[in-house]
Amino acid sequence: MATRAGNPKQWGQAHDLGTDHSYTATPFTGTAGENSVFRNFVYRKSDGKLWKADAGAAATMPCVAMCVATIAADASGLYIPLTGLVRDDSDSFTAGDQLHIQDTTAGDVQNSSPGSGKFDQIVAVVNSAHEIQLCSVVVVTQP
After folding, report:
1. pLDDT under 70 in the chain at which residues?
2. Helix (H, G, I), strand (E, B) or coil at 50
3. CB count, 10 Å around CB of 32?
4. Strand, helix or coil for residue 46
5. What pTM was computed for the model?
6. Which of 20, 25, 58, 102 to pair with 126, CA 20 to 30 A apart?
7. DSSP label at 97?
8. What are the residues facing 72 on neighbouring strands?
């Protein structure tokens, strides 16, 4: 289960978040539109449920939160807004990378723009291989 860590000291600096799947943001409860797991990025659909974001279609954007638990479709679970720090030991990013919503795997991110004709939203900046800093500004552009 994910845990909430202490407050960050300074932006752009790696922090000791303790254990895998920890985060600094205050979670909220939402209903999953589909099965979701820790670090799935989601958008809110017109049915009020949270579904995995996909840069390939306007209807599945913008991303508004990140899942911080394993949640079955139509069940309630914890999400965090696009603020704060997140630790995921399965990540292996490079410090300074910007993370964009993918257009190939719904709910996931990549360290490059999804490409021409896709919707581009940066949702995090990498602090260290296993720590990301979520962005609080939601901007979606189509190149």
Report:
1. 1-17, 136-143
2. strand
3. 23
4. coil
5. 0.85
6. 58
7. P
8. none
The domain spans of the chain are: 3-134
Contacts of 95 (CB under 8 A, 6+ apart): 14, 126, 127, 128, 129
Residue 34 burial (CB < 10 Å; 0-12/13-18/19+)?
middle
How many other C-beta atoms can be found within 10 angstroms of the C-beta atom of residue 40?
A: 26
pLDDT digits (tens, 9 = 90+) for 77-106: 999 999 999 999 988 899 999 999 999 999
Q: Quick check: helix, strand or coil at residue 127?
A: strand
Extract the tokens encoding 103: 């257009």
Distance CA 33, CA 74 (A): 6
19 closest CA partner among 74, 79, 68: 68
Using CA atoms, how far apart are residues 112 and 100, in angstroms rounded to an integer?
6
Q: How many CB atoms lie within 10 A of CB 77?
A: 18
Strand, helix or coil for residue 125: strand
The maximal CA–CA distance of the chain, rounded, in angstroms, is 40
